[in-house]
Inverse folding.
């Protein structure tokens, strides 16, 4: 019975990791996109001022 409980816990942790890890990666990509988007807009504003 203890082995079955151990397997169930391991399966739960594995399934949790399969859900959490991609969400963390997507959140990181979203933050990176927002940070680079702001710097691109600043570069475009500087280009327009020099023209």
């Amino acid at each position: 019975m203890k082995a079955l409980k151990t397997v169930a816990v391991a399966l739960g942790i594995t399934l949790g990791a399969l859900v959490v890890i991609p969400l963390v990666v997507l959140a990181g990509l979203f933050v990176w996109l927002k940070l680079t988007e702001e710097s691109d807009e600043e570069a475009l504003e500087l280009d327009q001022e020099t023209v």
